[in-house]
Amino acid sequence: MINELAQWLVLAALVFLLLGVLRQMGLMLPPDERAPSASGGPELGKRAPSVLLEALKDLSNRDRNLRENGSRTIAFVTERCTGCSALLASLAQKEKPVQEPIVLVARRPSSAFRQAIEQTGLPVIFDVDGDIWQTCQVFATPLVVRLDSTGRVVAKEG
After folding, report:
1. Whole-number CA gyration radius for the chain
2. Using CB atoms within 10 A of its CB, is residue 139 exposed (0-12), middle (13-18) or buried (19+)?
3. What is the spatial distance between Cα 106 and Cα 109, in angstroms, rounded to a whole number?
């Protein structure tokens, strides 16, 4: 009798442990609590978050090419990301002028990564406090988002 009770207690503990692991992995969460797609980013077909549009407006005040062209491509890049390194290398080799401006958004880069970014010659938004990344819900990089002249997301790849 005691042996049977111990077996049931061990089985119950294992079930609770399994449920806890599944919840931590996000497999037992209700659909509205699960993380969106792996890369995240602004929602396709909707206007980009205002914090990104304001940063672009500030950058446009300093960059004539951005000011004259309303549509643009935004590339979210991070350090230690193989895809980001390849993207930066290809952007650094492209000949100018680019028909549609490309803007990089980097979060807290080291000095070496900052140099790699500057070698592209592209305008950069340094998201020091992470507000842009958090508001845009960027979960993985590289993430490339294309905005039309009104700030609406018309394409996204990540």
Report:
1. 22
2. middle
3. 7
Single-letter amino acid code for the residue at 130: G
Q: Which two tokens stand for residue 154?
A: 């018309």
Q: What pTM value is reported for the model?
A: 0.70
pLDDT in tens, the chain (158 residues): 677 766 666 555 555 554 554 455 444 444 434 344 446 888 889 999 999 999 988 888 877 766 666 778 899 998 888 888 888 888 777 655 556 788 999 987 888 888 888 888 888 998 888 899 999 999 888 999 999 988 999 999 87
Question: 107 and 81 in contact (C-beta within 8 Å)?
Answer: no
Cβ atoms of 51 and 131 within 8 Å: the answer is yes
Kindly give the pairing relationship between strand 124-126 and strand 72-77.
unpaired
- As a residue count, the chain comes to 158
Give the C-alpha separation, 157 to 147, whole Å.
12
3-state SS assignment for residue 12: helix
Please tell me the distance from the alpha carbon of residue 59 to that of residue 74, in angstroms, as a whole number. 12
